Amino acid sequence: MVDAGDYQLSAEQRNGTATIAIRGRVAIGNAQRLLNDINQRLPPHPREVQLDLSGVEYFDSGGGAVLLQLRRELAAQGSELRITRSTPAIDGFLSLVDEEAVLAPPPAAPPTPSLLERAGEWGMAFTEGVRHTTAFTGEVVLGLLDALRRPPRVRWRDTWLYMQRAGPEAVPIVALISFLMGLITAFQAAVQLRQFGADIYVANLVGLSITRELGPLMTAIIAAGRSGAAFAAEIGTMKVSEEVDALAAMGLDRTRFLVTPKVLALLLMLPCLTIIADLVGVLGGLVVAMFSLDIPALVYFRQMKLYMSMWDVGQGLLKSVVFALLIAGIGCLRGFQASEGAESVGRITTAAIVAGIFAIICADAVFTVLFNVW
User: Fold this and answer.
1) Binning pLDDT at 50, 70 and 90, where does residue 180 land?
2) For the domain 2-103, what is the CATH code?
3) Does the chain have fewer CB atoms within 10 Å around its N or its C terminus?
């Protein structure tokens, strides 16, 4: 008999059968020690091992682990473990354990796909993505055409709400970023132009770069991080909670209810934000011109007026309209691609931001090439 303080262990052997009686506490703290004591008192290859647990006062998951490990070791030797006596508490605990699942061998690792298989999977996923994108683009175009033909059918209350979130609430961050971009651009231009005594041309560079490129581009990137992510998260949450399926079951058009208000709101607000970004960016350059280059404000604006036209501002506004379509469309599309769980919503929200910014930069590159060619 073994007295380990917290448990007592006695073992008997008769006709190839080992009988082990355990009393006291069987817990996580002494599980490994108990398993070692049992193995030391077992014959080399017993036909059967019988356990008497009627004297166990406390039994937790550590005891369950001992029994499972002992059963696994005996099964490897061709022996059997049988519990002859127990308590109701232990029986209830063991009834909750799926021994077959625990003792089952781990599943074999799937074979690593070859490079050709990976290329095929990527091609199929790309084709499926293009198909979904094309179909969704058609839905958005039809929804916008329907909104133009029948304005009363538009959900204007939702549209005003999205306009408030995408427009006025974004003004502070857009203004701050644009002011800093104008400031930085003017400083960098002054470093080079001062070498040739051409400080006055800082106004030209700031005006053209802000209105043509930096104003609409930075505003669109901010909108992608704010509005695009919000659209994807909202629709993704509705998709996960099956609200989108409920709309379809009631025979309601998901595009008219969920997509069109968001696209219209961003189409109306992003050009307005771009104008604000242009004005504030030009003011940022003015600060550098006045306090660092000693250029009066009147001279700064006169120089800008001589070398700029309304088409320079119009380029940025035209870009902002396309950017708004891309941001809102990608955000809504990613939202409809949510599957199940909060993790899916987080993943598609991140994908909406990344894809939106990528599409904005690609579209800006295309516009830049076209405008310079023309």
Assistant:
1) very high
2) 3.30.750.24
3) C
